[in-house]
Structure formats: structure tokens, C-alpha cells
Amino acid sequence: MNTVSNTGGGSISASFSSFGSIVPQHFPLRLTASRMIAPSVRHLVFQRDDGDSLSFLPGQFLQVHFHYDDGKPTKRSYSIATVYDGQARPDLPIEMAVSYVSGGAATALFEHLKEGDRVEASGPFGRFCLMPNDQNRRYLLVGTGTGVTPYRAMLPQLAQQIRERGIEVILLFGARTPTELLYADEFAAFAETTPGFRFVPCFSREMPAQPRADDRQGYVQNALAEFQPDPEGDIAYLCGNPNMVDASFEVLKEAGLPVPHIRREKYVSSK
């Protein structure tokens, strides 16, 4: 399963100034729906089970608390995948994408979770968010696997910035095969209805049977150069596999992007 990590579970590798914070809370979540969206990824929909609202910033994450078989408490971190318009309300669905890891303790928890079951959670945490004072002309959003979930949550914010600031957004999403391209239909539909947003899937092992014009073969970090990263106008977000994040970071630094304009969040698998 994926956890947010740099030096440890729940920490974030990022270099940018703070923009205010929402006080984390501890609360129960009740599962209301779920579906498999890839061979080893389950999309889960929860609601707070205490009647309160959850305020968060798109890009933040929650921690799910549970116990190992021996009773030892532990927790895992998951980015909030809810497409969020900024309006907190008690009935707001709280969505996550959970990767299954063979033998993982959290995988055992989520595999057996049924609609109506509860889990304990805390949050929100993290600063992998769009910044209110950004003056860039373009966002380069790069993700692999469930690292694309923060970008799903950001879609309403991105649409607003495209309308109000005239920015461009390119989402480069890496997957091994088409079956592992999470939320692909949603991103493609958003690109079709939102001028200024471009969705570029990158497939490292198997291309679709009928590739789209923006489909690419290879790793996302290798596709970055095609879009000519601009030190003067670009801000980049990198989220997902640590090797991808590191490789993309080097590509962007070599292109001249200032380090504060390369915002990173690494996901690592934990059992």
C-alpha cells in the first residue's frame, strides 16, 4: 500500500513556504462504496461517521489507524482523492485509492473492509498543494500510480486558475499498462472540456490498442523534455514512485527550474 514518505511515514519532501494550515483531527470513517480501478488498486469512498465536516486542501492526506495482528498500533497515509470544490460539508465523500501489497497488514485490513464498516483516521496533513501566491504561467504535474490522486482532488482549483489566470496545465501520468492508468477517463474528459489542460499518459510496458494523440511510450521522466520545462514560467509537482520523483527532479533542475518550484511527494510501499 502507498504511504507518503521522505524521511518517514507521513513526511513530505517539499521546498516551499507555508500558506496557513487546517488543524488535524481524529475521527471515524464509514465505508460507503468501493471498486477496483486497477488490478491491485481499490478506490474507497468514506464519510465521516461523527456528523462533522472535513476541511482540507487538495493535495493533503489522511492517516488511517489500525492494529497489527499482535495488537501493536500502526497507521498508513493516503492522499485524499476527492474532487474538491472547497466546500466542507458533513456529507462530503472522502475518497482514497489504496494499493494492495502482498502480505501487507493494511492490505489485509482494506481487502476485508465492507460497506458500513468503520476505520479510524486523522488529518488532514501535508503541504503538497497549489499555492495561493503562485505567479507561474504553467503547471507540470507528474505522477505515477496512486501518486495521481492529489491531482484528481485539484481539478476544480486548476479549472479556476485556468479561467482566472490563463495558465496551462500538463498532467504527465506514468503507468506500466493501460489497465493501471487510474482515473484515466476522468482526466481525459476534463482535458476535453477544459482548454488549457492537457493529459499525457506515459506507458512503460504496454501501449493502448488504440493510442490517443497524447499517449506516450516510456517513462514520464523521459517525456518531460518534450514539453520544454521553462525556468521562468513553470512550477512542477512530482508525486509517486521515489525513483520517478528523483529522476524527474534531476531533469527539471538541469532544465533550470529553481528548486522551490519543484514540489515533491514520494510514495513508498509499506507492509
TrEMBL record:
Pfam entry (one): NAD_binding_1
Query: In the record, what terms sit under GO molecular function?
Result: oxidoreductase activity
List the Gene3D superfamilies hit by this protein, alphabetically.
Answer: Nucleotide-binding domain of ferredoxin-NADP reductase (FNR) module, Translation factors
Name what cofactor the protein needs: [2Fe-2S] cluster
Query: Superkingdom of this entry's organism?
Result: Bacteria
Q: Which residues form the FAD-binding FR-type domain?
A: 24-131
Name this protein carries in UniProt = Ferredoxin--NADP reductase
